[in-house]
Design goal:
This protein has 331 residues and is mainly alpha-helical. Helix content is 74%, strand content 0%.
Length: 331
């Protein structure tokens, strides 16, 4: 890549570390709420929704984009379920709030990446995204298998005892949900002609889903009896908006493949650094965890550098909605 792309490469890796930071913040928020991961998830996602809504009231372009999405849904050009990509983000935030405290950020991230890569292979083959069906290459299949091996390796010294195996399934499933989210969000972004409007609908769906889940849980278990006093634990929504914004800007400079590789690299390295330098709770970084992260990095590189055909992903559709003359003037 040209030297001018170097700052964008670093920015993309940084966005991945922000994802790991959000996981830690949400985990600590859940701990401060007495272990209520449901409340932590709805606060984190909901704060992002509030910020985006305030911006939508001020910015005319994204408002018009949101109107185009609604018009496309009413006209049948966009399926109603394609606007529900935020459910994947909700699953991700819920998994953070419920499992990071027990698993640690590093193991949580390896499990998320395993779900993402596996889900990506499945949804590419199904043609769920706007790029249409894509046959998985041998390298991507090998990469997906290696990531699953990395999860097992990360757990190697945790076998036996009281390790919460069932809890590991949550980030694995959440990773698959994130892949689905990326697929359907590609359709929404194309319909809106605006990354901001697409992100807004993502937060609308996610906040609605998490609010319903939280209310059901609160009816059964009650509300948290305390709120944490540390201000930083309420910044999860802002962090989420930040790494999404970086991804939208960087993809134009790097392409989807390199952006994805850099982002997941940042996630894995950032998660390991957080657990090593700023340990939280009873989590412990062992040699097996470090080896699992290293193997996951290698697996992601194998999967992401699988060639142009395998690299076409949902956000890079060739059927992007073309703006009309008034819309071009508006922008």
């Amino acid at each position: 890549m040209p030297a001018a792309a170097a700052p964008w490469l670093l920015l993309a890796v940084f966005s991945g570390t922000l994802i790991s930071l959000q996981a830690r913040i949400t985990g600590e928020l859940a701990a401060g709420l007495g272990g209520d991961g449901f409340a932590a998830a709805v606060i984190s996602f909901g704060s992002g929704f509030v910020l985006l809504t305030l911006g939508l009231l001020v910015l005319r372009g994204p408002r018009r984009g949101a109107g185009r999405v609604l018009a496309d849904v009413r006209g049948g050009r966009l399926k109603w379920w394609q606007v529900l990509g935020g459910f994947g983000g909700a699953a991700f935030l819920l998994a953070q709030g419920l499992t990071v405290g027990a698993l640690g950020v590093a193991l949580f991230t390896v499990a998320i990446v395993a779900g993402q890569v596996s889900g990506g292979l499945l949804f590419d083959r199904m043609g769920l995204g706007p790029a249409g069906p894509q046959r998985p290459s041998r390298r991507r299949v090998v990469g997906a298998a290696l990531v699953l091996v990395a999860v097992g390796l990360s757990m190697a010294d945790k076998l036996g005892g009281g390790f919460p195996y069932a809890m590991l399934l949550l980030p694995l499933v959440a990773g698959v949900c994130v892949s689905w989210q990326q697929a359907v969000n590609g359709h929404v972004k194309n319909a809106a002609g605006s990354a901001y409007a697409g992100t807004f609908f993502n937060f609308v769906a996610g906040t609605a889903a998490l609010t319903v889940i939280f209310l059901v849980h609160a009816a059964a278990k009650g509300l948290p009896d305390r709120l944490p006093t540390e201000p930083y634990v309420y910044l999860g929504g802002l962090v989420g908006i930040s790494f999404i914004t970086i991804a939208v800007a960087a993809v134009q400079k790097l392409g989807v493949l390199v952006l994805g590789l850099c982002t997941i690299t940042g996630q894995l390295v950032g998660s390991l650094a957080l657990d090593l330098l700023l340990p939280h709770g009873d989590t412990e970084v062992t040699a097996a965890t470090v080896a699992g992260v290293a193997l996951a990095l290698a697996a992601v590189a194998v999967a992401a550098l699988a060639g142009p055909r395998a690299g076409r992903v949902v956000a890079s559709s060739g059927t992007t909605r073309q703006p009309t003359a008034p819309e071009r003037a508006e922008r």
